[in-house]
Amino acid sequence: MRILGIESSCDETAASVALDYTKILSNVVASQVEEHQQYGGVVPEIASRRHCENILWVVQKALDDADVALDDLDGIAVTAYPGLIGALLVGVNFAKGLSLATGKPLIPVHHLAGHIAANYITHPELKPPYLCLVVSGGHTHIVEVLSYTTFRIIGRTRDDAAGECFDKCARSMGYPYPGGIHLDNASKHGNPKAFTLPKPKISDNAYDFSFSGLKTAVINLIHNSKQKGITLSREDLAASVQTTIAEILTEHTVRAAISLGYSTIAIAGGVSANSGVRTKMQEACARLGYQLYMPPLSLCGDNGAMIACAGSYAFDAGIRADCSLNAYATMELR
Ligand code: KG4
Ligand code: ZN
To answer: Residue of the nearest CA to atom 14 in ligand 1?
Structure first.
């Protein structure tokens, strides 16, 4: 079975061909990060325009690299939600056109189901049910993965996503967008105990998260020290922020796993590339004797391979769309 996966939900135009669910024959990503960097974040209008310019050659290259013709495909999977609406529409409309022209089935994929599926590519032995911490720039969810295509969210952020918190803290520390990776690199040279930062608790759901208080604390710390003429160590602050976020994510996920009886845990999404998050999760899972799965760094961020893989399982489950398929900026994962 050969499934083409197309992703355009944010600032990466990506396409890939997956063979038999998890064998990735090609994986092409055209990133716009450098262009958005000068604005300090993704400019939706620019993202949509660049997707329009890139999508044709990205998909063609994915087919060429895989040595697969359109005729050889069993289906065309596309991220239909959630994401930037103008960006999503480019991928969705392209996939609809391709499906109409070739007669190949159209398969809508939830972006977060894609991130979760990135784990199957390197760990085909990972099988549902298990618990997954999905941490990206826009989402922070604890998800019960009930099957390859059915999910139940049991914890979520009440305000900022973990990636957003990383990026906003990094920005206030002077790092360019997206700051998560810079903060991660800086933290390797800092003392994680240098600053004590808040770890908010949500009283009515022990699995939910809140990161806006942490972000505000970091911004205030920087602001106050500037006013007093004190120079903070960026490395120490980076290490303290990263450790605090990693501890919050790990504590909540482990708490959920213990209460719900899961001993297999996965992590997914852009923030799953964070070295602090990976280490804390590894330590906690080793201590409890739990099995932990993490995508390789190359598949943590947005890519087409995860959509092709998730699309393969969706195809198998009979999930199809026709030309009435629309893109949605928000959509619950279920
Ligand atoms: O999943 P993703 O690529 O896009 C969304 O679906 O949002 O996640 C992007 C997020 C950004 O906030 C980015 O800063 C963060 O993932 N990120 C990191 C690291 N690499 C990417 N955050 C912390 N440490 C990293 N190493
Ligand atoms: Zn993503």
So the answer is: 180
Token digits of residue 187: 């933290």
Distance, CA 134 to ligand 2 centroid (Å)?
Answer: 9
Distance CA 41, CA 37 (A): 6
Q: Residue 76's closest CA among 17, 14, 148? A: 17
Peptide bond into 82 cis (omega under 30): yes
Tell me the β-bridge partners of 19.
2, 23
The model's pLDDT over 290-327, given as tens digits with 9 standing for 90+, comes to: 999 999 999 999 999 999 999 999 999 999 999 999 99
Contact of 234 with 120, CB cutoff 8 Å: no
pTM of the model: 0.98
Q: Which ligand is nearest to the CA of 139?
A: 1
What is d(CA 323, CA 206) in angstroms, rounded to the nearest whole number? 42
Nearest residue (by CA) to ligand 1, atom 8, is 270
Give the C-alpha separation, 237 to 249, whole Å. 18
Structure tokens at 161: 């996503």
DSSP secondary structure letters along 114-177: HHHHHHHHH-TT--SSEEEEEE-SS-EEEEEE-SSS-EEEEEEBSSS-HHHHHHHHHHHTTPPS
Give the residue among 16, 26, 22, 265 at the shortest CA–CA distance from 124.
22
Nearest to 163 by CA among 285, 39, 279, 301: 301
CA distance 266 to 263: 10
